[in-house]
Amino acid sequence: MKLISQEFLHNIAPQLDLLNTLGGGVTQPQVRVHKREQGVVIRVSAPSVRPETFHVVLNNNRLDVFAEYRPAADDQLVAPLFVQSFELPVELDLTRIDAVHEGRELRVRIPYQDPNTNHREINIRRR
Predict the structure, then answer these.
(1) Could you tell me the pLDDT band of residue 117, with boundaries at 50, 70 and 90?
(2) What residue numbers bound the domain in which 73 lies?
(3) What is the pLDDT of residue 127?
């Protein structure tokens, strides 16, 4: 006999995360970083977090991935659900970052720079 249905658990998980956050805790997403031949893929799995609450912000070589709780779209009350920061190495092409939320997972793809674009001759000016 099943006492708790899968649908019940799916519906109550966001409220439990909110209560945890308001009580001083944060949501614990599962974060995995995969190095691939073409670049790096950061996978963030937080099943109880709605896709529209995720944010990905690049500041110099620091990438912040976070989610926030906002009761209504125009509400001023915002509570952080989680924050994860990554210091990105110089060999990544920060101009071509791509993020997609699919299923219950956020994937951020950052390709490596083309080694040929970092190599150029500098013109010497005469005065």
Answers:
(1) low
(2) 6-116
(3) 77
CB 64 within 8 A of CB 56: yes
| Cα separation, 98 vs 63, whole angstroms | 12
Which CATH number goes with the domain that contains 60? 2.60.40.790
Which amino acid is it at 106? L
The DSSP call for residue 92 is B
In tens, the pLDDT along 29-55 reads: 899 999 999 999 999 998 778 888 899
Does residue 127 form part of some domain? no
Buried/exposed 88-115: b ≥16 CB within 10 Å, e otherwise: beeebeeeebebebeeebbbbbbbbeee
Q: Is the pTM of this model over 0.85?
A: no
For the chain, the residue count is 127
Q: How far apart are CA 43 and CA 30, in angstroms?
A: 8
Maximal CA-CA distance, the chain: 88
Say how far apart CA 73 and CA 70 lie, in whole Å: 7
Q: What is the dihedral of CA 64, 84, 28, 97, to 10 degrees?
A: 50
Rounded Cα gap, residues 94 and 87, in angstroms: 12
